[in-house]
Amino acid sequence: MSSLRNAVSRRAHKERAQPQARKKFGHLEKHKDYVERAKAYHKKEETIQRLKEKAAFRNPDEFYFKMIKSRTFDGVHKVQGEANKYTQEELMLMKTQDIGYVLQKAQSEKKRVEKLNATLQSTDNQPSKRHVYFAEDRDEAKELQSRSSNHEKLPASADIPDRIKRKTAASYRELEARRNRVNELEKIYMDMAMQKELQSNCHFEMQKQTAQTLPFTIAKFQWQRLLGLPQTTDRGEEEIHEQREKNK
């Protein structure tokens, strides 16, 4: 019987709202609001009580090894950062994994862009319906031709439902957003690849070449692997060129 009694729909007893004369005091607190506020108050009270007990029974001589690497700032314990937590090989491995993930995402986004672009192109380039008319003589053929030309003057978009137009517009917006995402991922990939090269153990020499004439020229980076050979400067290259000319 109790289950049947609970299944029957009852009238929802609504609590009264804030009277008009007391609107300036804000929302009238209901019983559920009081219960929530009381639970939060007692929870904070119990937390403070536990902290007081922990402070009262604390051993002044207790020691943990984590105390060596932690300091208190304004009463808050903060662990000091570990400078050499990871080795150079581990850092390079993590950097490689990050670059691989970004590259994978960029490739998947490119495939989605190509697929969506092909779908939209096939939708736009759909051939229109053709009507074949049969005429008995030339006069009737001219009349049918003029009639068909009048129908062709109507815009093709007039026959497309609004629902299809909205979906097509949404697809074009999605295509533009995915293209922007691909460009951003490619930029991130290039930046991460350069950071990896800077952090690698291989000895590289980076020469930054900037044009003096154009202030807006993008800086170019040239990488040269050092294999213990003497570096060829501009003067050295000129001497090599002169030697080759003499040998000729």
TrEMBL record:
Cross-referenced InterPro entries: SSU_processome_Utp11 (IPR007144)
Record keyword Iron present: no
A single BP term in Gene Ontology: rRNA processing
Entry's Gene Ontology cellular component terms: small-subunit processome
Keyword Ribosomal protein: no
Function: Involved in nucleolar processing of pre-18S ribosomal RNA.
Name of the protein described by the UniProt record: U3 small nucleolar RNA-associated protein 11
